[in-house]
C-alpha cells in the first residue's frame, strides 16, 4: 500500500495578503502572525517582498531569524537587485527560499514587460541561476500562468528547472481559471515537461470569480503538491485561496484527495482571529471554518438532529479547528429540545411540563422580535413564567 502523499502548505498572508488594500502590517505584527503560522506547522511562510521597502526587508529578515520550524521565503522579481535583496534578507534563516517570478502571458509580456517570449525565457533562467547561487531552495513562478499559452509555459518551466528551480508555481494571478481547465493545465504541464519530476508543482489562485479554493483543489487532484494560500483568504482584490478551506477540505475529504497536510488544525481559529484583529478586516459570519456561524445551529430541525447525533448536520468538529465547541443559537427557528437543553446548561429546572410550555411560548414570542436570544433573556423569561404560575 502506498504511503499517503504530503501537500505542502505555503502561506503568503504576510506577502500577498498584505497586498490587500488597507492590510499593511508592522514588523512586530508580522512576527506575531509568523509565530502563529509556525505553531500551525505551515511548511513555508512567505514573509514579504524584500526589495519593496526597507520595512519589508527588515520584516523578512526578522521573520527569517526568529522562525525555526517553517521555511521562510521572500519574493523577488526576476531581476538581479531583487534576488540579491531577498538573499540578503534570508541569509540567517534556518531554512530559506527565494521565490522569483516573471510574467508569461501574452498580454503581460507585450504591454507590461515589453519583452519577447525569448527574452522572458532568458531572464527566467538568469534569475533562477542567480537565486540558486544564494539559496539552495528556489521557487519559480510564471505570473499570469492562468492566461498563458501552454506551449510557452512548457518551454519556460523546463528551462527554469534546468537552471535549478525545485518548486514551479503556476499562478492564476487574475482569478480567471475554471477548476476543470486549471486542473487540466497542471496535469498537462506535469506530463509534457520532460524534467517535471525534478520539481514540485505549486498553485497560487486568486479569488476574482470566487473560485480560488475550487481551482486549487482541482489542481491538487491533477498532481499539484504545494498550495499557496492565506489566512481568511486575505489578498489582492478579492483575495487568495483561503488556507483554512484548503486544509479542511483535504482533511475532511481524505477519502477523495488521499493526501495530507502537516497542519495543526486546532491553531486555525486563533490564527484567523489574530489576522483579523491586526488587519482590522472582520471575518464574515458565514465564512467557512472560521466565521462565527460556521458551527452554529439555529433551526429546530438541525438543533434536534445535532443533539441526537452531531454528524447529522456537522461534517467537521468545531474543536478540531480551534473553536471551543459548536454553538446552538436560540432564535425563532429553534425547537423545544434545544430550549430545554439550554435550560439544563443554565441549571434551571422547571417544576412542571406546564411551566416548560409557558416558558417555551414566551421564548417564541420574544424570538419573533429579536435575532438571537441570549442566556440573560432566558433567565428573565423563566423568572416571569415562575412569577405567573
Ligand atoms: O498572483 C501572482 O501571480 C503572484 C505571484 C507573484 C506569485 O502573487
Ligand atoms: Zn498572488
Automatic annotation (TrEMBL):
Q: Which organism is it from?
A: Ketobacter alkanivorans
Gene name, please?
leuA
Name the record gives this protein: 2-isopropylmalate synthase
Q: Quick one: which pathway?
A: Amino-acid biosynthesis; L-leucine biosynthesis; L-leucine from 3-methyl-2-oxobutanoate: step 1/4
**Which cofactors must be present for this protein to function?**
Mn(2+)
- What UniProt keywords apply to this chain's record, in alphabetical order? Amino-acid biosynthesis, Branched-chain amino acid biosynthesis, Cytoplasm, Leucine biosynthesis, Manganese, Metal-binding, Transferase
User: A single GO molecular function, which one?
Assistant: 2-isopropylmalate synthase activity
Protein family according to the UniProt entry: Belongs to the alpha-IPM synthase/homocitrate synthase family. LeuA type 1 subfamily.
One Gene Ontology cellular component annotation? cytosol
Where the shown chain sits in the full protein?
1 to 389 of 516
